[in-house]
Amino acid sequence: MASATSYKNLKGKKVGVCVSGGLDSKTVCKRLVEEGLEVLAFSADLGQPDESDINNVRERMATCGVETVIVDLKEAMAEGCFDAVQAQAKYDGGCECPRFELKALGAVDHFPAPP
Q: What's the mean pLDDT in 6-20?
């Protein structure tokens, strides 16, 4: 298992960060840039209904001094959803973070609720 690395040990290096373009993403990226890291941000285009134009993420992250690559994952997400339906996945509605029970080949894989 890899050990944790302090961002201070990465000064002058390029790091990739997955971002949504929200306050947390901008804060983390801005802090890393201020600490001397070169940051390349990545955001997934999943066809989110709350993001009218995914390129707005790129514009929001630019204010932090980082370039953002938008990765089109709409087709992969749709395929994953069909796989979940075929595996008889069901949403248990028990928390803010969706948990699914997947029943495939008689095995149940359950993702526990966050602490």
A: 88
pLDDT at site 79? 82
Q: With b meaning 16 or more CB within 10 Å and e meaning fewer, what string describes 19-49? A: bbbeeebbebbbebeeeebebebebbebeee
Angle between helices 55-62 and 23-34 (to 10 degrees): 40
Q: How far apart are CA 25 and CA 71, in angstroms?
A: 16
Alpha-carbon distance of 37 to 31, in angstroms, equals: 9
Give CA–CA dist 33/67, Å, rounded: 11
Domain annotation for the chain: domains and CATH numbers: 10-72 (3.40.50.620), 74-115 (no CATH)
Q: Distance from CA of residue 94 to its chain's centroid? A: 22
Quick check: 73 and 46 in contact, CB under 8 A? yes
Token pair 């947390």: residue: 24
